[in-house]
């Protein structure tokens, strides 16, 4: 490397010498425009110096990239020593997710194929095979199956969104810390923001980022047209929500009007059971459930009161949301919204892909992109009340390597290679998920078919990270869900719900911070 740099310096010095010689030649020639020519020469010299600085910068960048590649290459060579001399390394992966996210498994197969090509190029007679399955499976069923497999010492090598969070798996001792592998193979994540993969819990990294899910607030354009809205008004709604002008209070009024006119059966739907979208209105108020400075869970009584008041109004005052919403079947939720029986839906980006791949529409079956763009609008979640912030969660979902794996480093490489831009583009477009690699945005499929994701990308500066690195987060979720269920059913008031949460949190969660 030093020799190359010396050569560059020598070449530049030679060019500068020639320029100086030329300058001397100009000086000794009798010419009336010496001053002008010297100025021109000086300008060319400055231009050359600038280009040299640019060349040196690019050289340093290439040298750095070379060093990263060399480090990964050496790591791979050292890994070869742990392989059998010949034969097959078998891996198993269980992938969960929404119905349109089957590429989570498919891309692992492609990642294994890519790794095999690399191994072959190194002259190694070893093949990696992976049995990767994808299921749209309920959380409790996934947890039970994984627990049974673990106890039988038959757990998969790789999991993603399969019943347990990465934090839970780490706490149980089931997950492999990945810091060492990230250090060895950093070149594979050169275009992935550190915030996507350096999600630490107990000082370690536990996941390989596979996508980023963004929550989205949807509305039916066709219903708004029936209400007498102009196209200009409909097209302006998303912007008004995104800038905070239209709040949830306004949304409830619009929803009630649509119901009163008999245009929809319900005004607003939210998800079944606990999940990120239910906590967004709390974050809109400036609340948070995790304090990164202390590493403790936290709740605000005043913000919880405003939070529960919103859902109380939705179900008990405006009556635009069913009081049993949290127990509503998922298929009914999607079928009702896709068929225009509900005006607003508190959903996620992945539902845009799901509606185009699952037959929810009673006439069309799967929605066409044209129908979706014509009849469904989207935005951030509205501000919970005037003065609050519109926004949404963006949460990275990642592969976890389980500690029963005989070849955890091989499993890591397969998972990392499964997220390369070409493969990731397929998953993002099909599943309507944001990419983790910057390079994915340049893949032709993403460019041609990723309009929806491109629009969402413009809003990510108004989102919050959905990452809760705390072992008792699931307990707080249970407490919040109990209170919310009772509020929506009209069994308790918003203030009673706050009291319930505070009482249980104090008794059941270690050192929780309670403010207000």
Strand-helix topology:
Elements: H1 2-28, H2 34-80, E1 87-96, H3 103-121, E2 126-135, H4 139-151, E3 158-160, H5 166-171, H6 179-184, H7 194-197, E4 200-201, E5 204-205, E6 208-220, H8 221-226, H9 231-242, H10 248-260, E7 266-269, H11 280-284, E8 290-291, E9 296-300, H12 301-317, H13 330-338, E10 342-348, H14 349-355, H15 369-375, E11 376-379, E12 392-401, H16 408-417, H17 421-431, H18 444-449, H19 451-457, E13 463-465, H20 473-488, H21 494-508, E14 513-515
Parallel strand pairs: 1-2, 1-3, 7-10, 9-14, 12-13
Antiparallel strand pairs: 3-12, 4-5, 6-10, 6-11, 6-12, 8-9
Helix pairs in contact: 1-2, 3-16, 3-17, 12-20, 12-21, 20-21
Please report which band the strand proportion falls in: under 5%, 5-15%, 15-25%, 25-35%, 35-45% or over 45%: 15-25%
Tell me the Rg in angstroms. Answer: 29 Å
The count of strands amounts to: 14
Mean pLDDT: 89
CATH class of the largest domain: Alpha Beta
Q: Please give the CATH architecture of the largest domain.
A: 3-Layer(aba) Sandwich
Low-confidence residue ranges: 1-32
Rounded to the nearest angstrom, the distance between the terminal CA atoms is 61 Å
Determine the CATH topology of the largest domain: D-Maltodextrin-Binding Protein, domain 2
Keywords:
D-Maltodextrin-Binding Protein, domain 2; 51% helix; 14 strands
Short characterization:
By secondary structure, the chain is an alpha/beta fold. The chain is built from 21 helices and 14 strands.
């Amino acid at each position: 490397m030093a020799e190359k740099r010396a050569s560059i310096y020598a070449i530049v010095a030679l060019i500068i010498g020639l320029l100086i010689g030329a300058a001397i030649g100009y000086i000794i020639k009798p010419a009336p425009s010496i001053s002008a020519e010297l100025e021109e020469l000086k300008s060319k010299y400055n231009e050359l110096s600038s280009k040299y600085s640019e060349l040196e910068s690019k050289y340093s960048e290439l040298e750095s990239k070379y060093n990263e590649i060399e480090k990964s290459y050496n790591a791979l060579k050292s890994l070869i020593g742990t392989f059998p001399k010949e034969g097959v390394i078998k891996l198993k992966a269980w992938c969960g997710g929404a119905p349109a996210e089957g590429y989570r498994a498919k891309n692992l197969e492609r990642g294994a194929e890519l790794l095999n090509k690399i191994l072959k190029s190194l002259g190694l007679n070893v093949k990696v095979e992976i049995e990767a399955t994808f299921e749209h499976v309920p959380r409790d069923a996934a947890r039970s199956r994984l627990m049974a497999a673990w106890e039988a010492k038959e757990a998969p090598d790789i999991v993603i969104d399969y019943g347990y969070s990465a934090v839970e798996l780490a706490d149980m001792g089931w997950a492999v810390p990945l810091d060492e592998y990230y250090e060895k193979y950093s070149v594979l994540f050169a275009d992935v923001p550190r915030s996507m993969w350096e999600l630490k819990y107990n000082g370690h990294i536990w996941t390989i980022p596979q996508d980023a899910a963004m929550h989205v607030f949807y509305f039916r354009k066709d219903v708004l047209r029936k209400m007498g809205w102009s196209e200009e008004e409909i097209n302006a709604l998303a912007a008004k929500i995104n800038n905070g002008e239209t709040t949830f209070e306004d949304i409830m009024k619009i929803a009630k009007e649509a119901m009163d006119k008999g245009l929809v059966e319900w005004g607003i739907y939210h998800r079944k059971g606990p999940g990120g979208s239910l906590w967004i209105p709390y974050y809109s108020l400036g609340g948070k459930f995790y304090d990164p400075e202390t590493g403790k869970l936290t709740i605000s009584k005043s913000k919880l009161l405003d939070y529960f008041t919103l859902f109380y109004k939705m179900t008990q005052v405006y009556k635009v949301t069913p009081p049993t919403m949290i127990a509503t079947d998922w298929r009914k939720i999607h079928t009702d919204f896709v068929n225009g029986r509900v005006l607003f839906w508190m959903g996620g980006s992945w539902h845009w892909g799901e509606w185009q791949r699952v037959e929810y529409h009673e006439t069309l079956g799967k929605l066409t992109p044209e129908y979706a763009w014509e009849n469904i609008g989207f935005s951030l979640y509205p501000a919970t009340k005037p003065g609050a912030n519109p926004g949404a969660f963006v949460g990275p979902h990642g592969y976890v390597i389980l500690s029963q794996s005989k070849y955890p480093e091989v499993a890591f490489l397969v998972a990392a290679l499964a997220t390369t831009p070409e493969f990731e583009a397929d998953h993002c477009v099909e599943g309507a998920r944001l990419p983790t690699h910057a390079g994915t945005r340049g893949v032709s499929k993403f460019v041609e078919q990723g309009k929806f994701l491109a629009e969402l990308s413009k809003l990510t500066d108004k989102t919050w990270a959905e990452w809760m690195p705390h072992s008792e987060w699931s307990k707080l979720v249970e407490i919040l869900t109990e209170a919310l269920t009772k509020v929506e059913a009209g069994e308790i008031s918003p203030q009673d719900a706050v009291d319930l949460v505070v009482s249980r949190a104090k008794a059941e969660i270690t050192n929780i911070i309670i403010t207000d």
